[in-house]
Amino acid sequence: MNWISDWALPKIQGLFRRDVPENLWHKCSSCEQMVFHKDLERNLQVCPLCGHHNRIGAAARIDITLDEGWQKIELPKAPADPLRFRDQRKYGDRMREAQAKTGMDDAIMVGHGRIEGRPAVVAAFEFSFQGGSMGAGVGEGLVAAARLAVLQDAPLVVFPASGGARMQEGAISLMQMPRTVIAARMVKEAGLPFIVVLLDPTTGGVTASFAMLGDIQIAEPGALIGFAGARVIEQTVREVLPEGFQRAEYLLQHGILDMVVPRGEMKATLARVISLLREPVVDPIETVPALPAA
């Protein structure tokens, strides 16, 4: 027995040991550098070293978009397991696990308030809730958000982050595609702005429905946006895809998006866009004073 290493050293270490939380540092998934958690929080979960935008939850998204004092609305309840679906596990069990993990009923949250003083309704997807997949609950949430926007005469801003339709709900999930298109049309027919901010990732049936119908299409830097995966497309067209294919910057260059906006500038950008779309444009000719009669 080595009494120095087995007895003395642990005693000495115990005198100076301090309990240090394990989550003080975050390893960036892009640059792989260690970032202090306080720096990451101050930078809205954007890596201060490389600019990589980490995913954030729906509540945090609405909180950094709407002014202080915004209100969350209760969404209509959808059938929990309409098809009694089961693969390796019961769909109902997966739903209960996701609800316990996120504290949400489904993969969408809707709030209303103001963006730099301008009224707005915001719907945000929660990607950690079954990959932000769109089932009946998400469809109900988007329809409710559209109705609230029309009722309040306010623009609707949607932040989708989704892997697509929720296949455990079969055709019911696919029917949410036309439902969400109708929700977008409700807002537009009321003469209100419908703004979509595409997050990482936005794919599948979400991209193929309301997510590409915004009056203004915005995305965060580096966001993966598309319908099918790159590998499937390459196997179908039998060609090598360009570098950065399906990323926000590539789509901006090819006219699919209107803007790519960093997270720290998103709120001010949305406020400016809403003011341009909502405030009446004054005809400069009408402001010129009439000439006195001769």
Question: Can you describe what's shown?
Answer:
With 294 residues, this protein is of the alpha/beta class. The chain folds into two domains: 23-54, no CATH class; 56-277, 2-enoyl-CoA Hydratase, Chain A, domain 1 (Alpha-Beta Complex), CATH 3.90.226.10. The chain contains eleven helices and nine strands. It has helices at residues 3-16, 37-42, 58-65, 91-102, 136-152, 170-174, 176-189, 204-207, 230-237, 248-253, 263-278, and strands at 25-27, 34-36, 71-72, 108-115, 118-125, 156-159, 194-198, 216-219, 259-260. Helix 5 links the parallel strand 5 (118-125) and strand 6 (156-159). The longest helix has 17 residues, at 136-152. The radius of gyration is 24 Å and the shape is globular.
Helix segment count? Answer: 11
CATH topology-level fold name of the largest domain = 2-enoyl-CoA Hydratase, Chain A, domain 1
Order of helices and strands: HEEHHEHEEHEHHEHEHHEH
CATH architectural designation of the largest domain: Alpha-Beta Complex
Query: What is the CATH first-level class name of the largest domain?
Result: Alpha Beta
Share of β-strand residues: 5-15%
**N-C termini distance:** 116 Å
- The dominant shape is globular
Classification by helices and strands: alpha/beta
In terms of per-residue confidence, which ranges show pLDDT below 50 for 5 or more consecutive residues?
none
Number of domains: 2
Q: Please bin the fraction of helical residues.
A: 25-40%
Number of strands: 9
Radius of gyration: 24 Å
Give the integer mean of the pLDDT values.
89
User: CATH superfamily membership of the largest domain, which one?
Assistant: 2-enoyl-CoA Hydratase, Chain A, domain 1
Strand order of the largest sheet: 3-4-5-6-7-8-9
